[in-house]
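Pilot study result, target chain (469 residues):
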Amino acid sequence: MSNVATVLSVDTPAGHPDRLVVRDVEYQVVRPLGQGSYAFVYEVVGPRGERLAAKCVDQGTLSAWARGQLSAEVQIQQSLVHPHILRMHASGEDALVPGRFVCILDIATGGELFERIMEQQSFVEEDARRVIRQLLGAVSHMHKHGVLHRDLKPENILLETAAHDSAIKVADFGSAKRLASAGPSAYANTPCGSMGYAAPEQIALLRYEREVDVWSVGIIAYVLLSGSMPFDPAHYVDALASENFEVVLLPEQWAGVSDDAKAFVLALLQLQPSSRPKVEQALKHPWLAPQPPTPLQQPQLSTPRQLKRMHEAGMLRHHFAHANEIWHYACSTPNMKGGSGLPDAAMQMPSPLLLPTALEVPMAPRESEVPLLLPRERLREKAEAQRAKRRKLQQTPATGPAAPPRDGLEPPALDRDTSFNKFELPAASSSPTARAEDGGSPLLSRASALRSGSTIELSPKGVTLSGEL
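Predicted structure:
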């Protein structure tokens, strides 16, 4: 108890609560742990001196849909009790502040998994195997209870303690969905998750099931074993839609990794959901079988060093922080390959002329789940920033970069050679939305048929296409 008293002597920063009351139980706030787009997380001490975490949400900033999603998150997470899932002990409105909703959770003192690995001097294949075995155990428990997590990624894998062999805890069920045993609700449609980790069918307006979590585990396993991402999140859709789709294991990044580990990763990262193993099958893979003790020293993996480089390049963090942004992206992107069955006709959205600036995402017909929305203030700020960017681009002279196309979709990224005022089409860029405007005249759509290495030259006289069709 003396340790608790010492902790409680720390003053909470101004503007933060010093105590919370949830369902007639008082919790003393120790310190802030983090802040999200719509929530604060605090370390708290319960009535018996137990250390816990409190997630506080101001419901006044949420739309009715977001409040419904929060309610679903609470119901799902409180129903899941597993050694490797962050436990939610209680939830309810703070009796001291009307409108503040509080979730009382286990506290994971070890921090995020990848941040810990970056600090380690030693990381071997057995470390990765232990993490993936625990992660699959947690996912198996979810799936047995009809729950899809839909946002498995490094930030959502926490460590219970600071010990080297600490158990993991899967957190953040804000995108989770409980499936029915039969009928239309036995699958999901809503685009959500994080670019780089979401399965192909998950961001392509296709119906999907439990296989999306298997894909995400495969991405995490790839990163744990190689210290690199299999796909650049900035060009994720291009990679998945490529005719020559292939998961590459570069020898210099996979040196010292066993053949069983490589086979495991490749089995999970199958483009077609039906080709991926179920979670129970993945748990029986030879790579995850208990390994006999060996006197030989295991090869050191380059994962910690590579993760540091990825972190410095900003590739460890997802590019889309909220499900409604994934929704916008998916609605403006042609359906990619993959997916279990044909696209659901109810989910076929028209070209979203107003979606990027909309304050709320329209609910799809016959679809009960709704993307988690940003607070209205944040959405207004984002919408105004997008409008300002468009106005600036529209005022750009003809010799500058291509203005945004009139249908509201962004053109593919172009590598500009400023000395010759040319743009070179990047490899695997075949989007039919690749357009430019010069003097009010749209660039011929045949530009999308140019092969990589072709150029678009802009001049006061007009636009010149050169290259092989």
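One observation from the pilot: Residues 415-466 form one domain. A full batch analysis is planned for the follow-on phase.
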